[in-house]
Amino acid sequence: MMEEVIIMIKNNIKSNPPSATGEGSGGRLLRPWFLAARPKTLTGAMIPVILGSALAYHDGVLNWTLVLCCAFFAGFMQIAANMINDLYDFQKGTDREDRLGPERACAQGWITPKAMKRGIAVVLCLASITGLVALWLCWKELPYQGIELLLTGVVCILFAFLYTYGLSYLGLGDVLVLIFFGLVPVCGTYYIQAHQITTPAILLGFISGISIDALLVINNYRDREQDRISGKRTLVVLLGERFGLFHYMAISIISCWLSILLCYYIGGKQLYFQIVTLVYLSLHIYAWTKMREIRSGKALNHILALTSINMFIFALMLAAAISITNKL
């Protein structure tokens, strides 16, 4: 009898997934939005802010209030982009039943498309408010009175839509990651504090964008068969599985080389940067080896999580190496 009751409870749980309809407890109402926000991806949004702020600290211009504004803006924009992706992939039919990645809110029926659109609007408003607060705090000190940052914010919002609504389906996802997870947020975080963009800031932008691209590469490598069926032409779909493996490995080599180059530009301690690159390269090679062994299936989600941890460790160590340069 007890076994039958347990089975009934389990079946009831499966048949009543998280809902945004307002039924049930507050936790039940918020859980689908928490899943739609994809909090695990926020490390990718924070890394550029961390690196740009480390360089600002190195140059003696760090402003913690502006750093927090940049972090919140980046976080809100990441969440908005995730929700836009959730909605559009559902409408386009990309989130199929054979999906290998995490479940999506719209595809599972946890959040209706109409509710998701409202959620996207709310999050974008929060990002805009955060950006305007940062602008208000420093516009008088900026070369162009903040117009440059205002335009940058508008472009970020525009491409949050364009990435999912077409560009990621044309093999341009990696380029956009380089720009909007590298050059724009790193240089933007540094610029709002230092009021200029320097060669080290640009180098850090490339390091950030290239290292974070590893997440997109492993994601596209995992989903290559499903993407091919859905008509999503990622680089892995266009150039093949072997290119995906090569691309993933090349990311660490290029990131490490640029880190050593950065060391020379800022007059850093070579030993610190060598340790950073060796640790990151070792972690990345380990993940790449496991990626080659697994090759396909949901088991690659483990490599995705491992990649996220590796790049965050790399970012923290690199930020520390930058920060302590000329401080000891």
Produce the secondary structure layout.
Blueprint: H1 2-15, H2 26-37, H3 42-58, H4 64-92, H5 105-108, H6 113-138, H7 147-164, H8 173-194, H9 199-222, H10 224-230, H11 235-239, H12 241-266, H13 270-294, H14 300-324
What does this molecule look like?
With 328 residues, this protein is mainly α. It has one domain: Farnesyl Diphosphate Synthase (Orthogonal Bundle), CATH 1.10.600. Helix content is 77%, strand content 0%. The chain has 14 helices and no strands. Helix 4 runs antiparallel to helix 8, helix 6 packs antiparallel against helix 7 and helix 9 packs antiparallel against helix 12. The radius of gyration is 21 Å and the shape is globular.
Overall radius of gyration = 21 Å
Unreliable parts: 1-16, 20-24
Structural class: mainly alpha
Any guess at the CATH architecture? Orthogonal Bundle
Shape: globular
Distance between the termini: 70 Å
Overall pLDDT level:
87
Q: Percentage of helical residues?
A: over 70%
Please give the domain count.
1
Characterize the main sheet: none
Properties at a glance:
single chain, 328 residues, mainly alpha, Farnesyl Diphosphate Synthase, 14 helices, globular, disordered N terminus
Task: Please provide a brief summary of the model.
77% of the residues lie in helices and 0% in strands.
